[in-house]
Design a protein that fits this description.
16 helices; alpha/beta; about 475 residues; five-stranded mixed sheet; about 15% strand; 11 strands
């Protein structure tokens, strides 16, 4: 790939990033359109270790060619203010794939079309696709911050670097510690002879129930890597193969065991003191609410439901961007400083709460699956039937709401009838089916529980009244 590279002029600033293990990302670039010189690369990020295949190295001339390819068609770009367009290129002749986020920004007082791109080998297409939304959503938010910095004349490279490096580390860790697409039930808690062999019966039921109530998103924390990974694989049984590719086992030998926003299930190890620092910002920026499972002390906590999670997320993002706009100097651009600088929004650090609603679906499944003989395919088949049942209940719920509201033309006012007709009178069962339906139809929680924001306490009161 590096043979016959054309020279690049002028020289481009470059940041080399040290990552643990092989990094599938070849480079990340920030480029802009110059009205005189055309596409120009402002900065390049590249991992220090590219792996044993030297042919995958990108020279500066090739990076220039890729920047030309992503920006050439954007000269007459007409988009709404603040819009970010996502472009996906597969260049077979170069053997690379490029994900570009095109946006408008001000550089040196002029409005320019800019592109923030990540470049990977074409052979990594299957690996990257399940993680595409994770990377794009994280890059979109950092672009919002970068546009404000460009407007104020601040250095945007440090802002972009704060997200580019974690994404490189995320892709590197997923390359070595991702959950396999097919999980063998023999590697999970569901293969035990009896309930309670690996963990307490009530803890297992509560963990799986909360995991399903939070749209299949969970973090498993503990001190023993084997115990953490066994619970991670158990929860991944209730995910689709694509969602498993967005899940990660704990990294026993890695020095960078951190929480990454956007993954479905991830295992995390505590430090030598037996504690784990959970980053508030990254947890709140996850697309779905999350379940927190501690396998050392057998506790399960969960975040509020989807509509409340989205409300807090957008409010926090707005506060962060407002504080950035009001920052008097570049020294106040850190996430902690930005949050403290905005006095009209105080984040609620106690975002995890006890699992309030018990269910019958998961509890009946756990009781029945352990009646089957372990070591055979019986439990796997029974699990498949259970997941199919949940999926059909979610589809039925969606069709029911569509009929009652004439496909969204009228407000939904028959929650009591829905719970009775679909046999979802137990709040935990309703939460599980609603969470599965939310993944099929985004915004369902907000539509069912009303456009105004409901706190989780108000929602519980609403459910109780019906």
């Amino acid at each position: 790939m590096s043979a016959g590279c054309p020279p690049q002029s002028p020289a481009v600033a470059k940041t080399e990033v040290a990552v643990d293990g092989p990094c599938p990302m070849l480079a990340a670039t920030f480029a802009y359109w110059d009205n005189i010189l055309g596409p120009r690369v402002r900065h390049i990020w590249a991992p220090k270790e590219q792996g044993p295949d030297a042919s995958l190295l990108l020279c500066d001339g090739e990076v220039t060619f890729l920047a030309n390819h992503t920006l050439n068609g954007e000269i007459l770009r007409s988009a709404e203010s603040g819009a970010v367009d996502v472009k996906f290129f597969v260049l077979a002749e170069k053997g690379v794939l490029i994900v570009s986020l095109i946006f408008d920004g001000e550089l040196k007082g002029d409005k320019n079309t800019c592109a923030l791109s990540i470049i990977l080998p074409q052979a990594e297409l299957g690996f990257y696709l399940p993680l595409h939304n994770v990377c794009v959503e994280r890059l979109k938010h950092i672009i919002r911050k970068a546009r404000i910095c460009m407007q104020k004349g601040y250095n945007i490279i440090s802002v972009l670097t704060s997200e580019i490096i974690p994404i490189m580390e995320l892709l590197s860790s997923m390359k070595t510690h991702s959950v396999p697409e097919e999980v063998d039930i023999k590697d999970t808690v569901l293969n035990d002879d009896d309930i309670g062999d690996s963990c307490h019966e009530d803890f297992l039921k509560k963990a799986i129930s909360s995991h399903l109530q939070t749209c299949g998103c969970s973090m498993v924390v503990g001190s023993n890597p084997e115990k953490v990974n066994k619970m991670v694989l158990t929860l991944c049984l209730f995910l689709t193969p694509t969602e498993r590719k967005c899940s990660r086992l704990c990294q026993a030998q890695s020095s960078s065991c951190r929480y990454d926003s956007g993954l479905f299930v991830q295992g995390l190890l505590k430090d030598a003191t037996g504690s784990f620092v959970l980053p508030y910002r990254q947890v709140l920026y996850a697309p779905y609410p999350t379940t927190h499972i501690d396998v050392d002390i057998n506790t399960v906590k969960q975040m509020p439901p989807c509509h409340e999670h989205t409300y807090h997320q957008r409010r926090y993002q707005q506060a962060e961007l407002s504080a950035l706009w009001r920052a008097a100097s570049e020294d106040l651009l850190g996430p902690d400083n930005l949050t403290l600088a905005h006095d009209s929004f105080t984040p609620d650090l106690n975002i995890f709460q006890d699992v309030m609603h018990k269910d019958t679906l998961v509890r009946s499944f756990i009781d029945e699956v352990f009646l089957l003989k372990p070591g055979l395919q019986l439990r796997t088949v029974y699990l498949s039937h259970f997941l199919l049942l949940l999926h059909r209940k979610a589809l039925t719920l969606l069709r029911y709401i569509e009929d009652e509201t004439q496909k969204g033309k009228k407000p939904f006012r028959s929650l009591r009838n829905l719970k009775t007709d679909l046999d979802l009178t137990v709040e935990g069962d309703l939460n599980i089916v609603m969470a599965l339906a939310e993944k099929l139809r985004a915004g369902l929680h907000s539509f069912v529980f009303g456009k105004p924001f409901y706190t989780s306490v108000q929602e519980r009161d609403l459910l109780t009244n019906f």
